[in-house]
Amino acid sequence: MSHLRAAAAGGLRRSGGRAARPAGQSRKGASPRGGTSAPAPAPPPAQHLFSDPSEIEALRGNLLAWYDKSKRDLPWRTLAATEPDANRRAYAVWVSEIMLQQTQVATVIDYYNRWMQKWPTLQALAQASLEEVNELWAGLGYYSRGKRLQEAARKVVTELGGQMPRTAEELQKLLPGVGRYTAGAIASISYGQATGVVDGNVIRVLCRLRCIGADSSSPAVIDRLWDMANALVDRSRPGDFNQALMELGATVCMPKAPLCGECPVKQHCRARRRVEKELAFASQKLFGKPAPVPDVEDCGFGNCPLCPPATEPWDSSLGVTNFPRKAVKKQPRVARTATCVLERRGCHGALEYLIVQRPSSGLLAGLWEFPSLLLAQGLQEEKQREVLADHLQTRMGWPVAAGDLQFIGEVIHVFSHIHQTYVVYSLPLDGDVTLDPALSPSRWVTEEEFHASAVSTAMKKVLKACEKQRGKDSSPGKGSKRKRGAKPQGASSTRPGTQLSLRAFLQAPASL
Ligand code: SF4
What we know:
Order of helices and strands: EEHHHHHHHHHHHHHEEEEHEEEEHHEH
Distance between the termini: 64 Å
Helix content: 25-40%
Largest sheet: 7 strands, mixed
Oligomer: single chain
Bound molecules: iron/sulfur cluster
Number of helices: 17
Shape: globular
């Protein structure tokens, strides 16, 4: 199974569906008008293929022998190997594969163990609420993964009689959120279906084994890699073979510093062979020996669709890391969000924070956060404060003065496609304050409850920034802009033991 998901050089990561096509859709040769078929594309030059059956056999043997000896002991592997029930086995693999998309193995292990303990079966997961799923997923990122997993589990239970589809094709067709990669992984590991997989690790290994230097994210290259993975997969141990290929990419054939000397398939690697030829040529030249011109050109096939583009020829200083290549990644969008940590002393004196729930769709759907507002570009600090105060007032239904918002600092969090800066403010409140029930979904939480809630890593960073600032403010000789414990205007007459609504607390100073 896959391991380091930040896989290919240049940051290519595995995506469950990125390289997949809808089930049943032909990859090539289909005529859009139903007329004569388009001519089949020419096969790639031999340099980029595994065409010798004996070499394929040798590669499988070498890779599996290495995997048997070196594989990491991972909880989902244990479950896949020991669970006798095919549905539970497939479920266990499925959960791991979804968690491993975009996330490193070391991070996933704890989440996986907690998940499987809480929801050991599809039926248990189908009964969970989205809130529970988000709470357990909190911190793992890409939250829609957990939501989709749960939706798909419900579908299996309610529409498929609790039976997981039994082939890669059916898995991809019937389960939402299951792309070609995930379907292949579940089918090969859980059911022993002889089907290949292509993720970021496999892309890197195959591109190096066969000197594929064209854009590794292009459909043409991805199609070739799927063909190759399907041809290479060991027929008797497909699940182990696929996991071995991914394990190799994660632990040996790494993006920046591959350990070619330790590689079990180095004798099959054309990128390594090319480097060796160059080195031999250089050393012969050094000692003044007549040397043949090295065979370091591209495959010799004019305009080869799998060779590096002419504008980016082989770079000797990069060695095998010339492969794979990927088109330059689009820069993440820049965004600024004002966020306010509203805090109060709870009934036992512990600090409490107000959190609100995000909408049920879009980024961080359904998660809880401090009240926040996306800012227009170029707003000055004073204006930011004003719009945030207005936002709080509109959303919560009580007046907030911009001057009462204490600036804490800026917190940066990079999502996959957004470079997000949170401009953090705090607003300390005192007194017995409760929220108007009409203002939901929002709630006050202690720090412990905050961390146990479905909150994003970004919000945890925001709280940390506040706590750091509080530490500075409370150090000797320093005070916060607004003294802690000082009651906002109108709060002084709060009667002991009276629970006021926040609206009343802030809106009616004279009447209390
Ligand atoms: Fe990767 Fe090096 Fe092995 Fe080739 S020899 S597959 S580049 S680790």
